[in-house]
Automatic annotation (TrEMBL):
<dbReference type="InterPro" id="IPR001680">
    <property type="entry name" value="WD40_rpt"/>
</dbReference>
<dbReference type="GO" id="GO:0005730">
    <property type="term" value="C:nucleolus"/>
</dbReference>
<feature type="domain" description="Histone-binding protein RBBP4-like N-terminal">
    <location>
        <begin position="11"/>
        <end position="83"/>
    </location>
</feature>
<feature type="region of interest" description="Disordered">
    <location>
        <begin position="78"/>
        <end position="122"/>
    </location>
</feature>
<protein>
    <recommendedName>
        <fullName>Histone-binding protein RBBP4-like N-terminal domain-containing protein</fullName>
    </recommendedName>
</protein>
<dbReference type="Pfam" id="PF12265">
    <property type="entry name" value="CAF1C_H4-bd"/>
</dbReference>
<feature type="compositionally biased region" description="Acidic residues">
    <location>
        <begin position="94"/>
        <end position="113"/>
    </location>
</feature>
<keyword id="KW-0677">Repeat</keyword>
<dbReference type="InterPro" id="IPR036322">
    <property type="entry name" value="WD40_repeat_dom_sf"/>
</dbReference>
<dbReference type="InterPro" id="IPR015943">
    <property type="entry name" value="WD40/YVTN_repeat-like_dom_sf"/>
</dbReference>
<dbReference type="InterPro" id="IPR022052">
    <property type="entry name" value="Histone-bd_RBBP4-like_N"/>
</dbReference>
<keyword id="KW-0853">WD repeat</keyword>
<dbReference type="GO" id="GO:0042254">
    <property type="term" value="P:ribosome biogenesis"/>
</dbReference>
<dbReference type="InterPro" id="IPR051972">
    <property type="entry name" value="Glutamate-rich_WD_repeat"/>
</dbReference>
Length: 222
């Protein structure tokens, strides 16, 4: 395969096959993110993305890995009005790409995808992010390069991306939610992080570091 089994020639270029996608968008954030996770929502469990279908909404959370001494953030995002591919887009030839680009430039602003994001300051770069819904609360665990594992409540940040008035207050006051809990028992940083999918172990969290140590966390009602 060109680009993998051999280098691309000067006159070669890898292009996407639109027929392989039902939905395709590129998202650019302020800093590189090594890890992200999708947040479960209440918009319907059985909804599907179909070619020529209705616009869709998704929620996600990511963690930044900025350059040395620059601040890092946990970023909660709402991506809405994302329109699936059309039959025309999935079957058009490369020769028609220029004309399709000009057509998209003239689209009404109301048809464009929308992004709302709320930042949560984070101590150290974020190696891994894993989200989980526990007892109706949206939790996210993060692995910090400083060897710490944090658990965050995303309720306030999610309210901000869903309500412009709350977002204005969130930004104006520079809200900086603190983690619900920080675990410092690891001796070094790590990347392995997983919430239990078992019904009998809801809220259990496993974290593993690069030295091979694994810790299992059990939630307790305070």
């Amino acid at each position: 395969m060109p680009g993998r089994s051999r280098a691309l020639e000067e006159d070669e270029e890898l292009v996407m096959d639109k027929a392989a996608y039902r939905l395709y968008y590129q998202l650019h954030v302020e800093a590189p993110c090594l890890s992200f996770d999708i947040l479960l929502d209440c918009l319907g469990e059985n909804r599907a993305v179909e070619v020529d279908g209705d616009p869709v909404t998704a929620y996600m959370v990511s963690g930044t890995q900025t350059a040395h001494k620059k601040p890092n953030n946990l970023i909660v995002m709402k991506l809405s009005n994302m329109k699936p591919m059309t039959k025309k887009e999935t079957t058009e030839k490369e020769d028609n790409e220029d004309s399709s680009d000009s057509d998209s430039d003239s689209e009404d602003l109301d048809s464009q995808p929308e992004l709302e994001s709320a930042k949560i300051p984070h101590n150290g770069t974020i190696n891994r992010v894993r989200a989980h819904q526990f007892n109706g609360v949206y939790l996210t665990a993060t692995w910090s390069e400083l060897g710490e594992v944090h658990i965050w409540d995303l309720s306030r940040s999610l309210s901000a991306v869903n309500d412009s008035a709350i977002m204005s207050e969130y930004v104006r006051t520079r809200e900086a939610p603190s983690p619900l809990f920080t675990f410092k028992g690891h001796q070094t940083e790590g990347y392995a992080l997983a919430w239990s999918p078992l019904a009998k172990a809801q809220g259990y969290l496993a974290s593993g570091d690069v030295a091979g140590a694994i810790h299992i966390w059990q939630p307790r009602v305070s």
